[in-house]
Amino acid sequence: MKNLTLFFVLLSLSLNIQAKYAHLSSPNGDIKVIISDEHSQPSYQIAFNQQAIIAPSQLGMEFKDAAGFNQGFTIENVSRNSVDSSWQLPWGERQKVADKHNEIAVTFTAKRDNTNRYTVRFRAFDDGVGFRYEVPKQQGLLNRVEITNELTQFSLADAEHVTAWWIPARGWNRYEYTYNTTSLAEVDRVHTPFTFKLKSGVHLSIHEAALVDYAAMTLDQRRPGLFKADLTPWSDGILVKTQTDFKTPWRTIQISKDAVGLLNSTLILNLNEPNKLGDVSWVEPGKYVGIWWGMHVGENTWASGSKHGATTSETKRYMDFAAKHGFQGVLVEGWNIGWDGEWFNNGDLFDFDDSFSDFDIAAVTEYGKKKGVDLIGHHETSGNVTNYRLQMSDAYALYQKHGINQIKTGYVADGGNIKRIDEAGIIRKEWHDGQFMVAEYLHSVTEAAKHKISINTHEPIKATGLRRTYPNWIAREGARGQEFNAWGSPPNPPEHTAILPYTRLLAGPMDFTPGIFDMGFNGLGENTNRPQTTLAKQLALYVVLYSPIQMAADLPRNYEAKLDAFKFITDVPTDWQESKAIAGEVGDYVVFARQERDGNDWYLGALTDEASRTIQVTLDFLTLGKKYQAQIYRDGDKAEWKNNPYEMIIEKKIVTAEDTLSFKLATSGGVAIRFKALD
After folding, report:
1. Catalytic position from the list 93, 483, 495, 596
2. What is the CATH number of the domain that holds 35?
3. Which ranges of 190-266 does DSSP label H, i.e. alpha helix?
4. Measured torsion, CA atoms of residues 535, 540, 546, 550, in degrees rounded to the nearest 10
C-alpha cells in the first residue's frame, strides 16, 4: 500500500471501534507515527511522504516472575512536547547540531493490580523516529526486574523488492564481517545498524541510541518483512537485569528519500544525553602512527624476542617520524607483560602496569615530550574483563603519571566467550554485546575520564551515540577493519568501504586505520591478502570514513617513498566544522565534503566499489565569492586496483563555489581533494 490516505482508510475499516490512537508528526510533516491500543495490544506504525513504511508493529516486554506488558493494555494518557534548539559537539563531524523534534509520551495501563503501567516515548525528527520504554516502580515491579523478552517489532509495510545490507548477529567474530547485499528474504538474525532500500527508493536504517545498562538489540526476521527485537542474553538466559524505575535505549529508525540522506542524519546523537563529564578540553582529536601494521604483515611480533616491535628504540624511531610529519601520537602495541604464549586464549597473562624489559615507558614518554609527540597506550584483555577491571585503576594512574592521554583497548575473544568471574568465583562466559559487557565498556570509559584519558575501543560494543554523553569515548572499531587486508583470507572486498558509511558509520566514528601505501606486501593481483584499492582510494578514506583519530597505518618507509601522496594525510584534519554527504548509493560509491574545524579549508573524499565510474561534483558547499586552490589526488588514467593501484595524478586548480568538477574513479578507486582557501 503506497498511498497513505488509502492505507489509513483501509486500516480504519478493520479497527476495533473502542481503540484509541495517538498521532505524531515530524517537524516538516513528512514522517507520521500512529500509536494504537487496538485489540488491547499496543502497537505503532510509520508513514513517510504518504507512503506506509512500518506497518502496525507490536510494543511491549515480558518478565521473569511478573506479568508482562503485552495483551490487555490500553492508552490511558498522552503528553506532548516540541523542541527546536541546537547544541555543540566538542569534536565531531560538525560543531553545531540542530535538535528539532516533536515528542509524544503514551502511557499504557491494564486493568489489574500488578505490572499494569508503562510509557512509550516517541520522538519524530525530520530524519527519523526514536522510541523507548519507561517503566516506573509499581506492584509486581518494586525493585529487581528481569526481562525475558522484548516484544518490539519492526514490520515493513511492503517487504517485496527490498535490498538489504547486513552482517550476521550472535556470531563468533562479533561485528567483523563483510556485508551481505541481499533481498530481504535472505536475512535471518542481524546486527544493527541494519540498512535497507524499499522498492520506492526510500532508505531506512534500524538501530538504537543511548545503550546503557541494557542488552544490545539485534533483529530476528520472524516472517517475511517482520523483524523482532532480539536482545543478547546473559549466560543464564536472562536478557536484562535491572530495577525500577528504568528506561530502555531508544529504538531508532532513520528514514530518507535516498541513500545520501542517511549519511547526513543526526538522529542517533540527538537521542543521547548531553555531556556528563564537564570540561573535556583534554580530549584531543588528531592523527597518529603506530607500531601495529608491522605485526600484521609479519615484520614484527607482539611477543618478546628478536622481532619484538614494542621496544624503546623502535618507539623512539616512530616518534621521530611522527614529529617530522606533524603527527600527535604513536600507538605502541605489545609493550606489556602477557603477549608471550597463548595470549589469544588466556587473558590472565596480561599485566597492565609491567612492561617487557626492552620497553622503558618513562624514557619513551620523556622522549616524546621533547618531540611534541604523545605515546598512545594499548591494553589488550583477550576477553578476560575481570582481570582487566582489577588492574584498571592502577593502569590508568600509571598512564596519567607519564602523560599518556589516550588508550586503545582490545577485547579479542570469540563473540560469546568474554570471561567474567562472578561473586561466587565461578567463571562465566558472556557475549560482547550483552548487558554485562555494555556496563564493562562504559566502566572503562568513565574510569578513564577520572584520569583525563580518552578511550578507543576495539572489539567493542557497537556505537549508539554515547560519545555525546561521554566525549572521551573518542572512537571504536566494531567492523571489519584494515587489518583484514593483511591476513583476512579473503581481505575486505572493494565494496566494503562503500557500504560502511551507510551501515556501521551511521552509528558513530570508526577507527578503520586507513592509509596503506604498499599494496603489494603479499604481491599484487586479485587473489592475495592486500588492500583491494588504489592509492587514491586510501587517501579518500580519511574523509569518507569519519573518525576524530585517524591512523597513518602503514610503515614509515612506505610513506617516505611516496611523500607527494603522503602530503594529503599530513594535511587532512580529523575535526570538522561541518560535514556534507553529497552523492552516493549504498555499496556503489560515496562522496563526502567536510570543512575543517575553526577554519576555511574544505576537504573532499570520494570512492567507488569494484566498478569504475565518473562522478560530477558541484562545489556549492564552498563559500560563495571565495577562491580556493583545489589540491587534487586522483586515480591515473590507467589505474585499477588489481595490478596498477599506484598510478595517481596530483594536480592543482583554482575553483569557486560555482564550479563543477568531474572525476573518473578507477576500479576500487577514489579521489581526495583539499580546497585551500585563498586570501
Report:
1. 483
2. 2.70.98.10
3. 259-263
4. 40
C-alpha 598/C-alpha 501 separation (Å) is 25
b/e burial code for range 647-677 (CB count within 10 A of at least 16 → b)? bbeeeeeebebeeebebbbbbbbbbbbbbbb
Task: Indicate whether 137 belongs to any domain.
Answer: yes
**Cα distance between residue 7 and residue 157, in whole Å:** 10
Q: What is the pLDDT of residue 342?
A: 85
User: Which parts of the chain have pLDDT scores under 70?
Assistant: 1-17
Q: pTM, whole model, 2 decimals?
A: 0.96
262 within domain boundaries = yes
Give the total number of structural domains in the chain. Answer: 1
- Give the whole-angstrom CA distance, residue 646 versus residue 214: 47
pLDDT at 12: 46
For residues 549 and 518, the answer to whether their CB atoms sit within 8 Å is: no
Q: What are phi and psi of 180, to 5 degrees?
A: -90, 140
Q: Alpha carbon of 197 to those of 162, 494, 581: distances in Å? A: 6, 21, 18
- Per-residue pLDDT tens over the stretch 76-129: 999 999 999 999 999 999 999 999 999 999 999 999 999 999 999 999 999 999
483 catalytically annotated:
yes
Instruction: Tell me the three-class secondary structure of 580-636, residue by residue.
Output: EEEEEECCCEEEEEEEECCCCCEEEEEEECCCCEEEEEECCCCCCCCCEEEEEEEEC
Q: What is the pLDDT of residue 296?
A: 97
* Phi, psi angle pair for 502, to nearest 5°: -90, 0
Within-domain flag for 241: yes
In a domain, residue 277? The reply is: no
The answer to whether 630 and 661 have CB atoms below 8 angstroms apart is: yes
Domain that holds residue 152: 4-270
How do strand 454-457 and strand 406-410 relate by DSSP bridges?
A: parallel
Minimal CA–CA distance to 654: which of 679, 630, 634, 625? 630
